[in-house]
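[09:14] KT: can someone run the structure on this one? pasting the chain below
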Amino acid sequence: MQFENQAREHLVRIFQAALDAVAPDRLTAAALRGELNGAQTVPDLIAGAKRVFVLAVGKAASRMLYPANQQLAGRIAASVAVVPAGETREIAATRIFRAGHPIPDHNSVSAALAALAMVDGLTPEDLLLVLLSGGASAMLAAPAEPVTLEDKIAVTNSLLRARASVIEVNTVRKHLSAIKGGCLLRHCHGAQVLSLILSDVRGNDLATIGSGPTAPDRTTYEEARGVLIRHSLWGRTPERVREHLEAGAAGDFEETVKPGDPVLERATNIIIGDNAAALDGAAVAASSLGYKVERWRELYGEASDLGRALAAHLSALSGENRCVLAGGEPVVTVRGSGKGGRAQELALSLAIELDRLAPHARIVALCAGTDGIDGPTDAAGAFASSQTVARARAAGRSPSEYLARNNSYALFKECGDLFQTGPTGTNVSDIFIALVNY
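[09:31] RB: done, structure tokens below
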């Protein structure tokens, strides 16, 4: 256990290095100074504006807003911040809304209305600075009339239970919204719009991050309708939603902003941090600790399948100390009534397979969400090794039964293998770190 404890210390140090690499305050400050790749024109955009307005929304909103307030002191005419519910810090001279995630709530609607009211006063001489991060899609909700918040909540819940992809969920959300899918731009009266974005989605798709309030959207009303039909949800969808999507598909409503729309000519979207940057930071830290670093494939697909695949890969490694890194966002098909998250499910599946393939190998791993929250739990993720299974069995527990019930949180808690950080103030999906022959 002594060697495993030392390995855990290394895992935590590598994970923290990943977080440091995507620190929202540092990245935002560097972007505002024009020091990040792709952000060289930012200082000129700011200098050329008569007035600057700021909208910060997402899990990293407050950490992105602080450097903006410092560097643009005296330039900001008004600002709105939409932060996760439960975040208590205050931000000077800013209207703060604490909104729900992953399900929107009334604060999400109030935040969107405040943002729309702020941009309604813009002119072509002004600049709207949007600081966008993961979670924004739920936290900024402006239902398109006559759709209600309750309708959007019902649809979102149904899609999440049906295991719809992020892209599918956002396709529907964008076509039930007055602000998503580039529609925020239509309220800005020709002002320059600059978005600095911390990405939590695969491929850094601008239309998917926060449902793309300032980006073009290629999806349609008909595709949104198709998502609900494909997941057998259409008949159970609120009538107002069905009527709205059918009317939109028939051309009764304006579509979301499409590529080539003139409104995009005044919009600049810049990715300032993502999962790849976090993995780069982790790799540097692992190398400094003496490990040979290997980058595995992206973490997409069923978490339990990924856990087994990773166990097979790690078990086949031999020789020098190795650190295997991967990142992404697995999914979980919920079949049981337990408690857990995608990172914990992957970790438990990994531990079970390691126990089967290499019970005596020196392999220990950490899988965690960079936002510090894994599913509906207070854990960021979990540590995993074959010893996890040994400890569980010693306590009279069956790890495979816990996995079958999607109850990974309870097992890791009993084994002392939960990884708890609290909210980190950043969000670039999940990080997997494994140490082999440590």
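[09:33] KT: thanks! The longest helix spans residues 2-21.
[09:34] RB: yep, looked fine to me
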